[in-house]
Specification:
It holds the Pfam family adh_short. This is NAD-P-binding protein. GO terms for molecular function: oxidoreductase activity. An eight-stranded mixed beta sheet has the order 3-2-1-4-5-6-7-8, with helices on both faces. It is built from eleven helices and eight strands. It is an alpha/beta fold. 43% of the residues lie in helices and 13% in strands.
Amino acid sequence: MKRKFDPLLDLVELRGKVIIVTGGNRGTGLATVKHLAQAGATVYMAARNEAKAKEAIKRLDCEGLEPGNGQVKLLKLDLSDPKEAKRAAEVFMEKETRLDVLINNAGVLSGPFEKSADGLSTMVVVNYISPFVFTRTLIPVLTSTANEVDSDVRIVNLASIAHKFTPSGVKFSEIEDFNVEYRGKLMSGFMRYAHSKLLNILWTRALQRHFDSASPPIPIVAMSIHPGGVDTFSHNWPLPWFWKPIVALAINDPEHGSYTSVFAAAAKVVREEKEKYTGAYLDNKPVGKIEEPSAMGKDHKLADDLWNLTTSLLQTLNI
């Protein structure tokens, strides 16, 4: 029987490596930061709320993240505005000359349909467009790191099995295709979330093809993942001591919910079987299992259309 993934045993050497985890100040993001820092990496906790991020870093330091075990640094990142996402990436590149792993973890799960100042769905902006801009801006430092001898550079985009519930008929031919409301449908908010996670999967596949088709090819592995259900809410319920063990029967705590992210970011097997994981979609049962996304998630034309529409949008926005 295959042994379960263990972040203490199954990660590559991370001392001297630099990693960014967006949304790293709470939940699975915080647990991801902790695992990677304990393995020796310098991890940038990219977060919108500086006070909460500093508090989270202080807690990690108190738990024993000494300099020999890696360190955690703060990077202010506001994904509600793509221009701010670009600036955050530029600030990072003023601080560091290498980036070994980028984990686009931050995102919103629910909320009413709203539009940003640019006339775009705020959920699509936070879950997809700003991460796209943040990542694109970091491509030079990711590429220079990837071109070093014995490199192991990875990009991990958090998706969700929820993408399989996106209604058919998705297209990317005009800007309004980012603003699908699913008005009148049962659980329209969930549908919008599913749609945003489909974007992450399609973008990851297009990004990998971009790297592979470059001349010369850029040796970066891009993956999208389904982290699984994670309990980030039962502590807010009445009588949390009662509900927490019951909820745990169905879904993971943040510590174990971070395992798929940590696997994608630094598992030895990804380095050893690199071609197998390029552009892959990973599930959490078992951790790191390569899965097939939905038919739309595998549609190369849809991925290309999304890429072209996004780059056209960003050109219009002068980003």
